[in-house]
Amino acid sequence: MLLRLAPExxxxxxxxxxxxxxxxxxxxxxxxxxxxxYIVNIERNGKIIYTWKGNQRNTHIxxxxxxxxxxxxLYVFDKDLHIISCSVNNERTLLAVSFCQYTEEERASQLLxxxxxYLTLLIExxxxxxxxxxxxxxxxVRVQFLYPVEGRNSSTESRLLLVSEDKYIEQFDIHVVAxxxxxxxxxxxxxxxxxxxxxxxxxxxQRLFYIVPKESxxxxxxxxxxxxxxxxxxxxSHLDIAVNDTQLKLVNFGYDYCQDQDVASKSLNLQVFTSxxxxxxxxxxxxSDIPHEIIYSIYFLxxxxxxxxxxxxxxxxxxQLKEVAFMNLDYYVAAYLPGQFLHLLNIQHPDLLCYSLFLxxxxxxxxxxxxxxIRSPWVSTALDCEAGSLYDVSISDSALLQFLQKSKQDYxxxxxxxxxxxxxxxxxxxxxxxxxWISENMSTCHSFDPIQEFIIxxxxxxxxxxxxxxxxxxPYTSLHDWxxxxxxxxxxxxxxxxxxxxxxxxxxxxxxxxxxxxSVKYAEPHLxxxxxxxxxxxxxxxxxxxxxxxxxxxxxxxENAKKVLxxxxxxxSEARLAPLFEEEDYQQQLLMGLMVxxxxxxxxxxxxxxxxxxxxxxxxxxxxxxxxxxHRIMKEVWRRYQLHSCVFCFDEKGSAGEFxxxxxxxxxxxxxxxxxxxxxxxxxxxxxxxGVRCLPLHTLLHYIDNGVLQLTETCVRKLLKDxxxxxxxxxxxxxIVMRLPEVFGVSFCLPGSWSKGPPVLESSxxxxxxxxxxxxxxx
Length: 779
What we know:
The protein is an alpha+beta fold. Among the domains are: 532-710, no CATH class; 725-779, no CATH class. Helices cover 30% and strands 25% of the residues. The chain is built from 18 helices and 32 strands. A hairpin with a 4-residue loop joins strand 14 (201-202) and strand 15. Helix 7 crosses helix 12 (612-640).
């Protein structure tokens, strides 16, 4: 299974045995129709509040600590109540409880029309002493304590939030006076605007998202609560989501186990997810008039567009159709329909569908989640409300690699490749397994180059976490667009207005979200580094004469290259398996230095505040990492085919393994040329050496003429020196010498056979090769 679920808490495992020891038989009824034992809330510090019915049908409230694995009894009511919401403060001295006092039938039979149906209490629980009524209303109320900064001593003050479906939100500042009777005194309260709440409090960051329904478009707003301050209305965004009074449904504040199922089926399944990279997504499952069709929409507010997905289901019974469940995996949002599909949507790069994994059948199966009553209270967690289980959710690296290896479609391979690099943050073992997969599947990917994608995405994932906003300046992919389709999935994209933020000196999530919005305003694709200018400059300099190579400009370029190579030497202490970096390579050093200069200029235009020294370090690491990735690919294929230094012996033909490595090197060269990417010095010498051993003469010459193989002085000198004067070898040597690059002013005239003397040099001495020395070798 691609998603790995580790049970953090289970009512049956962690609570039921403890209740059995206390003799609470009624709570042990775990049948499907029983609501005697269920989770009410999960606090920010990981403590889980649950309720159960005692033997006398009285109502108990308990707490489970995820860290200590201990249960604690908090409070008991003498009546059989339906607990709607419950929260305990950080010190576990105050308990807020909202419950339904009676059913509609009881209200009608007892003529209690004047008595409110819902009651909200504030209770002192350590010690149990004082009970105060906060609200008595006919609408459901949710309660939540706001937690202070970790380590801050605030035992004398607590802040409680009350959210009602009757269009109001209130905050209470509660000061606990350490008197003899341990009384709780509410000294003051602050009130927010009376609005209809649709989404909930993000417990880890203490944000309250809510929607104000309007006739045309609803408005999403957010209030940020600060542990040491008050609160701030910080975000407003207009959404094309239909919300009305009959569709209001609170999520993550708790799950109403006794809610009328007909009402639940008509409610809007909507959740708001945030990511640490500044992503903000609104996920909602929409109704469809077509049988066997599921529609859900993701509003990528940090990108300025909405994507609506229509999924066609096959061979599905109508009673199996349920709403889509959403889970927050930080870099991904998971849209899950049990028994049908699992869609992992890339939050940071949602523009192309091929960056998101869409799984069906066995690949989408999650055994532990068989229903859609799933909430995601924190990042990478899933709460199965019906089963009363909390899971830690992660993507399985082994399952992802298996999916990558067996995938037959390019969109699956591309999504799995990016998921592995983005989610697992370039672990060395994972990269090695991806390299093995690439070496076996180079010719099976038709719509993208796996080497290019691996190198660019790896560099992106390595470099971007270190510096803020670097992810907007470095390329993530080699693809400019994607014309493929995912079978059974239709995706429609709509541009939406960007959210309006109002904050001052806010760090963390809001600062990153604001940065994302600013990049969208200024045409984000144009901010990414492009190699077009680099290609043009490299081509011009490659064709220059010797005189230009002494200029200050070129000296700086080659100085950049030396810094890159010295930077790389400090990383790679392991003996190099593939014979690279063992010679000077003018062309590759020129390209290295040019890339450093071009990338540095690009970053300086947009990251001035980082400083020149830091940008120099980023650029050197980027180019050095690039060369290191190519070397790692070579090292892996060298080890796989068990090659050794015999590739520089030209007196015998190459093996099948050498031919396979030659083919891989040709694909690496093709990928490098497409991205204008430097290669490690010695790459072309090694490539040519393998070509001489593995290819027939006419094919070898064809590859040289078409630029697949490039002549290097090291390889040409060794070739001419090592081969004897047989007719076939002289033909090979003659053909090679005749192809020494004329762009460097080289041409040879051979008046007779080589057995009568060496070729005569009749050209300028401004050649990249030391041709006179080469020829004197055979004098």
